[in-house]
Design goal:
The chain is an alpha+beta fold and about 170 residues long. The chain has five helices and four strands, in the order H-H-E-H-E-H-E-H-E. A four-stranded antiparallel sheet has the order 1-2-4-3, with helices on both faces.
Length: about 170
């Protein structure tokens, strides 16, 4: 699909089917996050693939947002290896991780899959449930799967402020 159409077509999926995500498609999505640009190429993003019933239930216990996707990606970053801006010490790990999430969302859409960015979760509880994430900062839960019958964008999906209110040419 051409990129412009992909960006317009992609929406936050909130109703997933039970169909499994093929291993090849999941690998392409992960590779999109792996290939994401990062500050100074430090690559601080870490991606956890939750597929087992137990892992998905543990993740569900950390958020009120339940979409019952067959796969949940947790994207975190290692603040210790992320680039810090010299002028003010700003850690770019979260920015790098969000870029990876964005690329994974677009890759999923290109493969006919849906995602939704979940930022509403309890990071402390998530770290308790998943000791494998110790020392990392989780920033997003990303459910992945096929749209269920009747799934559609939210009524707000196409609401955009005028481009003139967002872009300023100086």
């Amino acid at each position: 699909m051409d990129f412009e159409k992909l960006c317009v077509k992609r929406y936050l999926l909130r109703k997933f089917s039970d169909a499994p995500v093929e291993k090849e498609k999941l690998e392409k999505i992960i590779e999109a996050g792996h290939n994401a640009p990062t500050a100074h190429n430090n690559q601080p993003q870490r991606i956890f693939v939750l597929q087992s019933k137990e892992a998905l239930e543990k993740a569900d216990a950390c958020t009120p947002m339940h979409f019952h996707a067959p796969v949940m990606l947790v994207v975190a970053y290692d603040a210790g290896i992320a680039w810090k801006r010299e002028f003010d010490g700003k850690n770019h790990g979260e920015i790098d991780a969000v870029i990876a999430v964005t690329q994974m969302m677009l890759q999923a859409a290109d493969l006919g899959l849906g995602t939704t960015y979940i930022g509403m979760f309890d990071p402390k509880k998530l770290l308790e449930e998943f000791p494998e994430m110790k020392g990392l900062t989780p920033i997003a839960l990303l459910p992945v799967g096929y749209p269920a019958e009747g799934a559609h964008p939210s009524r707000l999906h196409t609401d955009r402020i005028p481009v003139e209110d967002m872009v300023f040419y100086l």
